Amino acid sequence: MEHRKSFVLVALFALLLLTEIVIAESNGDKGNNGNNGKGNDGQVEKGKGGDDAKGKGNGNGPKDKDKKEKEKKDKDKKEKKDKEKKDKEQSEAAAKYRMLSPLPTGQEQAMCQGQGACYYKTLVCPGECPNRKPTKNKSTKGCFIDCTSKCEATCKWRKPNCNGYGSLCYDPRFVGGDGRMFYFHGSKGGNFAIVSDNNLQINAHFIGTRPAGRTRDFTWVQALNVMFENHNLVITANRVSQWEENSDAFTIRHNDKLITLPEDEQSEWRETSGQREIVIERTDERNSVRVLVSGLVRIDIKVRPIGKEENRVHNYQLPQDDAFAHLETQFKFFDLSELVEGVLGKTYRPGYVSSAKSGVPMPVMGGEDKYQTLSLFSPSCRLCRFKPQEEPLFADI
Known about the structure:
This is Root cap. Residues 26-100 are annotated as: Disordered. It holds the Pfam family Root_cap. Residues 1-24 form the signal peptide. The strands form four sheets. Strands 8-7-6-19-18-17-16-15 form an eight-stranded antiparallel beta sheet, with no helix packed on it. A seven-stranded antiparallel beta sheet has the order 14-13-12-11-10-9-20. A three-stranded antiparallel beta sheet has the order 1-2-3, with no helix packed on it. The protein contains three helices and 20 strands. By secondary structure, the protein is α+β, with helices and mostly antiparallel strands. 28% of the residues are buried.
């Protein structure tokens, strides 16, 4: 009996122990399943979130960045075009005026006729420069009538400023559209595209000398050819053995026709070629002219020699029978494209960065091989853009 009772107690104890184990395992499984479920759910959510984040970072992120960059480029391009359009309109408006009778003081006056803030306003030349074309340019500035939003008449020299934007002077030294100065050596007898664009090309012919012991030529610009549509406008400094201050040392030809300017300082020559008007006027008694091709370019030109002192200081070693008459020029462009080329032209590109070394006395620009042409009249070079029109253009009637 006692033995049976003990057996029952052991069985009950075993049953109780087994029950505790089952309960414990059940709770443990529940806890683990809960944790795993939660953990897995959390992992799934985390994974999902991670995928979303990854998606946004590697997918939409670059797209958003590219979109913003494109929007910025489009905005910059639009702003540039708007500025170019405004500049062109301003340039055209500047010259749209009708001259009125001078005041009793001799001051010239004009009524602006271009649309804008200055429309129908009368501008009077200042007392210190009463005339647009003064008879003594060497000592007197000319009156510049500006019918743009500036709406003013100011005094300016009518000669090339060799330190100003778009200048080409000396042993060719340029000041680009970016305002930086640089030298371009070229070669004696060479021809180079100074500007080459869709509707304009300007070639320059170089003269020069190379003294014994030098590795390169001294060079100067002796002639320019302004090419537009199917026309050639050539300005040449004549070869003279001795410089004469009282004699002209330049020749101008338009399509092989010699242009003669009367020996009157206020003289000018005009002609309509295709859709452009050409205006050439003296800006001094001798050897100084302004050339305008409407809507494209204005060039202030001065012809000068290499003087004896200049020859000595720079050790050019020039022959005594050649004054090396050459051109000093300054260009003002009105309608360049964003892809303009040429030694000077490319400096007018938006965002242009000069390749000339900075911080040195004579920063040199290369590119002889890119811009050399076969002749003064050739529009072809490695990077040239200009294509002459085959048929003559006629002005609208």
